[in-house]
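Preliminary data (for renewal application), FE2/S2 (inorganic) cluster complex.
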Amino acid sequence: MLVCSCNFISEKEIVDVINDLLDQDRWQLIVPAKVYHAMEKRGRCCGCFPNVVDIIIRTTERYHAERHSTDAEIFDFMIRLKQFHEDNRRADIERRQKSNRAA
Ligand code: FES
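Predicted structure:
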């Protein structure tokens, strides 16, 4: 399934990159920009980023469920990951509102 129409990136490509990043450091916080940087791409309209965030969360949950992470480690990490993405989402909305007011 095509996730990013600007860069023609499929969900499978995104999942593969996320798994590679988690293989390097399984507790790192992954954001869409990090995924795209690893693919040597960049967000253009960034309309796909909310979907990429959902893929990051799903893939990270699956990654840890298939490995030897404890439930407590996974729970704590997923809380931090979801909070991190929620904070970023809120900051993006505030940034857009400020730029709309300035225009
Ligand atoms: S749809 Fe992905 S950057 Fe535009």
